[in-house]
Amino acid sequence: MSTVTITREANKALVQPEGDVVAASVSELRSAMREVISCGVRELTMDLACVQMIDSCGLGVVVAAHNSLVKVGGRLSVVHASKDILALFKAMRMHQHFSVTGD
Length: 103
Prior knowledge:
3 helices, 37% helix
C-alpha cells in the first residue's frame, strides 16, 4: 500500500487505503487507525474503493479496529468493498459484527 488518506470531522473519520491491504503494507494502516481511535474517533468508516486484495493480516487490522472501537462505544463500517473482498468478509462472517457494503 502506498498511502492511507484520513479525513476527520469531530468524532468521525474516513480511512481510505490505496493498494492491497496485505502483510507487507499494513503497518501504516494499523498506525493510522490506532491514532484516530486514540484521538477520540468513534465512527470509523473504511473505504476500500482503491483496494483489490486483503489478506489475513489486513483482516486482522480491520478486526482490531472494530474491537478497539467497540471498547469505547464506537463502531466501524466498511464501504466500497470489491465483490471478492465482500465475499471474503461474508465468508468470515465479519458482516455480522459491523456494516460491510460493496461497490
